[in-house]
Amino acid sequence: MNVFSASLASLRDFFNGERILICFNGPISRTLIGEIGVALKDHIESTQSRESAAMDVFSVYIEMSQNIRHYSTAKSYGDKDASATVVIAEVAEGHYAVSAGNIVEQADGEALVDLVQSLAHLDKAELKALYKQQLRKPRHDDLPTGAGLGLIEIARKSSQPLEANLGEAEKGKAFFSLRAII
Amino acid sequence: MTPVHDNNLSLAATQFSPGVEGNWQTGRLVMIGESYPENTYEFFAQIVRWTENFLSHADRSLELELQLSYLNTSSIRAMIDIFDLLQEAADDGKSVNVSWLYDSRNPRASELGEEFKEDYSFPFEIRAFGA
């Protein structure tokens, strides 16, 4: 086995071990978001008896990837910084982890982590009230990241509090990552 | 004067946006599909404009038939703009109603309809189709 096929084989082992259904790393386009989404939904629908699981995973995946697209477009990032890292894995029977990460400005990343942490304390009824309140706010009242309503929706679809992390990246930027368990 | 048929609205469905048919004569506006376009605002602006026009110029009731299996949050926000127009018209004594149709295998679409409905007082019917 050459180095290339050996590393592919170890990637495969890793994906299988982590029960990763679909993952993506690179510049993400509108079409790609849609195609991955449809493949994901079809796959879960065909293997899952809980009817709402496929829609919930799809919905969380769409909000995360569109948030990333909107953010990197708003920041006029080039392909490298506009990349998204998206992983969808099965964590237990009928439960899925949707994770997505992208490059952000340090201050925006901190605001996002704060927002995610503030959502973690809310129960479903409180999340619904906040969602309805945010829905009625003009678009420009969202966070500078534009992520307000989408994040609340993701939290509402999740069975556990969202996890957010901020790591260091090149040139003073940060890598923001978010994980939702459906 | 513009011929009446020019006031119809017709948008073909895509992977990202629902098919839309607005019939000026019958007062029916139908939307079918999924909605997560990237430029939500531009997409919905045409529908909002048609609805506004109809409500202020046509002396007929408006029936909005929705068969939307998935809406992203931007689309949900845009639908609120349309429902707000309907509520305003209803408050002015116009006859408006919404039929929300969902596939019985997709409970999330039913819940979405319920969450819209609870904020409005005009007739809003939620009905399942399929097995």
Task: Describe the protein's topology.
The complex is a heterodimer of chains A (182) and B (131).
Chain A: H1 3-17, E1 20-27, H2 30-47, H3 51-74, E2 83-92, E3 95-105, H4 106-120, H5 124-135, H6 148-157, E4 163-168, E5 173-181
Antiparallel strand pairs in A: 1-2, 2-3, 3-5, 4-5
Helix pairs in contact in A: 2-3, 3-6, 4-6, 5-6
Chain B: E1 9-11, E2 19-23, E3 28-35, H1 40-57, E4 62-71, H2 73-91, E5 96-103, H3 107-117, E6 124-129
Parallel strand pairs in B: 3-4, 4-5, 5-6
Antiparallel strand pairs in B: 1-2, 2-3
Number of separate helices of chain B: 3
- Tally of distinct domains of chain A: 1
What's the structural domain tally of chain B?
A: 1
CATH level-two architecture of chain B:
2-Layer Sandwich
Helix content of chain B: 25-40%
Highest-level CATH class of chain B: Alpha Beta
Indicate the mean pLDDT of chain A: 90
Alpha carbon gap, first and last residue of chain A: 39 Å
List low-pLDDT spans of chain B: none
Query: How would a crystallographer describe the biggest sheet of chain A?
Result: 5 strands, antiparallel
- Hey, which two chains have the biggest interface? A-B, 21 and 19 residues
Count the beta strands of chain A. 5
> What does the overall shape of chain A look like?
globular
What distinguishing features does this structure have?
heterodimer; A: 182 residues; alpha+beta; 5-stranded antiparallel beta sheet; B: 131 residues; alpha/beta; Transcription Regulator spoIIAA; 6-stranded mixed beta sheet; 3 helices; 6 strands; 37% helix; 31% strand; globular
